[in-house]
C-alpha cells in the first residue's frame, strides 16, 4: 500500500479563502507587524514569505528588520509601542532571538490579544484549559489540514514526538481538546519505536532528518511530518529540504504529509487566520477559534 499524500497547498488555499472573506467584512484591513533581529537566512526567508502572503490575502503587513545588536530594552520599547497602537492587530517576533535577548521577556511583553503566535502564557493557559484564544500557528494549521482531508481525531491514539513550546506541546493540547488520546514523546523516551507504533495519528516535530523509519509506524496510520531539515546536496548538488520522516514510511502509512509543501504552508495560512481573528476580537466581535 502507498499512503495517500496530504499536500498543504489545497488546505491552505481553503483557509486563506476564509481569511480573505473575513478580512473583507472588517471595517479596515487587519494589520500584521513582524519583527526580526539579525540576518539568519531562514528567518529572513520565512518572514518574507509571510509578508508576501499576508498582502496577497488582503491584509496589511509591516516588517521591522532590526540589527542583530538591538538590545532587549529597545525591542521591548518597540513592542510596547505596537501594543498601544490601535491600528496594529497582530504582532509576531520571529524566533530564535539572539542570545542577549530573553525570549521569555519578549513573549511575555506582547499583548495577548495581539499575540498571533499564541506563545504568551495567557494564551498557553487558555489552550490547556480548553478555552477559546489565539492558538499557535503550526499546531492549529495541522488540525485544519486533518479536518480538510476528513481524517479523524476524536478517539484516535495520537503520538506527538517533540515537546517544544512552539510545536509539540501546543499540538498535544489541541489534540487533547479534540478528544484524541495523546502521548508526548521526546529525547528521553526509551524505546521510541514501541511508542510510535501505537499511533493511529503520528505527529513528528523533532528536527532530525528521517528519524522515523517504516518499522516505527503502524500500518495505515496518518503521519504528520513537521520537520524542516536542510540537507547538503551530494557531489556539489543543491541543498534541499527534508522532513523528520523517512519517505519510505509512505509504504506503511495510510496518509502522510510531504516536506516541503505539507505543514509549512499551513503554518503561514494559520498566522493570517490568527491575525484576522485578533482583528475581529479587537473590533468587539467573538472571533476566537
Ligand atoms: N513546518 C513548520 O511550519 C514548522 C517546522 N518546524 C520544524 O520542526 C522541527 C522541530 O521544531 P521545534 O519543535 O521548534 O524543535 P525543538 O528543537 O525546539 O524541539 C525538538 C524536540 O524534539 C525532541 N527530540 C530531539 N531528538 C529526539 C529524538 N532522537 N527522539 C525523540 N525526540 C527527540 C526534543 O526533546 P527534548 O525536549 O527532550 O530535548 C524536543 O522536544 C524542526 O525541524 C523545525 O524546523 C518548526 C516550526 C514550524
Ligand atoms: N515567532 C515565530 N513563529 C513561527 O511560527 C516560527 C518562528 N518564530 N520561527 C521559525 C519557525 C519555523 N516556521 C516555519 C514556517 C513556515 C515554513 C514553510 O513555509 N516551509 C515551506 C518551505 C520553505 C522553504 O522553502 O524554506 C514548506 O514546508 O513547504 C517553515 C517553517 C515558523 N516558525
TrEMBL record:
Do you know which PROSITE patterns this protein is assigned to?
THF_DHG_CYH_1, THF_DHG_CYH_2
- Which top-level group of life is the source organism from? Bacteria
Q: Domain Tetrahydrofolate dehydrogenase/cyclohydrolase NAD(P)-binding, which positions? A: 136-282
Which residue ranges does the record assign to the Tetrahydrofolate dehydrogenase/cyclohydrolase catalytic domain?
Answer: 8-117
Q: Which SUPFAM superfamilies match?
A: Aminoacid dehydrogenase-like, N-terminal domain, NAD(P)-binding Rossmann-fold domains
Positions annotated to bind NADP(+): 162-164, 228
Listed under catalytic activity are: (6R)-5,10-methylene-5,6,7,8-tetrahydrofolate + NADP(+) = (6R)-5,10-methenyltetrahydrofolate + NADPH; (6R)-5,10-methenyltetrahydrofolate + H2O = (6R)-10-formyltetrahydrofolate + H(+)
Q: Which CDD domains match?
A: NAD_bind_m-THF_DH_Cyclohyd (cd01080)
Q: What is its EC number?
A: 1.5.1.5, 3.5.4.9
Q: What family is this protein classified in? A: Belongs to the tetrahydrofolate dehydrogenase/cyclohydrolase family.
Known role: Catalyzes the oxidation of 5,10-methylenetetrahydrofolate to 5,10-methenyltetrahydrofolate and then the hydrolysis of 5,10-methenyltetrahydrofolate to 10-formyltetrahydrofolate.
Q: How does it assemble?
A: Homodimer.
Q: What HAMAP family does the annotation carry?
A: THF_DHG_CYH (MF_01576)
Q: What is this protein called?
A: Bifunctional protein FolD
- Source species, please? Deinococcus carri
Query: Mind giving the lineage of the organism this protein is from?
Result: Bacteria, Thermotogati, Deinococcota, Deinococci, Deinococcales
